[in-house]
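Quick one: structure for this chain?
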Amino acid sequence: MSYQIALNFEDGVTRFIEASGHESVADAAYRQGINIPLDCRDGACGTCKCKAESGRYELGDNFIEDALSDDEIADGYVLTCQMRAASDCVIRIPASSQLCKTEQACFEAAISDLRQLSASTIALSLRGEALSRLAFLPGQYVNLMVPGSGQSRAYSFSSLQKDGEVSFLIRNVPGGLMSSFLSNLAKAGDSMTLTGPLGGFYLRPIQRPLLLLAGGTGLAPFTAMLEKIAEQGSAHPLHLIYGVTNDFDLVELDRLQALAARIPNFTFSACVANPDSQYPRKGYVTQHIESHHLNDGDVDVYLCGPPPMVEAVSQYVREQGITPTNFYYEKFAAAA
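Got it. Here's what it folds into:
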């Protein structure tokens, strides 16, 4: 039986390989053209030591403690020359993708759907045969090339890949390169190029309650994560707080409601910062975090939004005297 292994390199590149339960991860990677650093292949040098962030695997006992200690094993470290997968896994590689002789994957696709959700948000879907081979971790992003410009912009997936199609939520920035193309020139069938996937902001195994905090189009990675959670289920409660500046910035509320219907222990709320808003819940995201959402620190917090929001949430959590078990965040800023 083969399993899918996500290799996350320190330069942000993620590559996926297939590994059988009978071969080491290092051998599987090498067979597929990726050279994880190693010297001995015998569990003696520790050169191939990596961090397994999720999944089940076997290490055996064919290695020495100088290469991998009991404490490191307890913390999830592995020797890829000894590790054999027993499920899909995610492994953090402490080396760049270039050092491992691999690079970002490149995909060609065509615009399958293009909608103006509001004055500030564009929904873009791409479809192509090549995308049926695209694998990514929910929450990651790709670089989308703006046709004819030679420049690209980074966008998080807002959906899982299904039948060769993926989707994005794109901030409509006045004068923005991608925004201008999508608003004025783009049409269904136009070709676009994606490179990736990239990024260390992705859904980890759910081992405790989750608090998800989204600002504006920072909602995108969370809808992808929630699609994954809807497929696999969760024994822990999940709460999303979605904050925007103006009423017209609120999008995808129907989609969130549909996800809440599919995920029994998922709840969400939205808020609008503009004091003149007609929306019933006003203010910033931090004003709507309740004490039970932080669960006395036994919580994983995921945050995606503009830098001021990330800083404000970080300061708020510190002021509560609470340290979340894990705090994952991604900052983004719109490019003009």
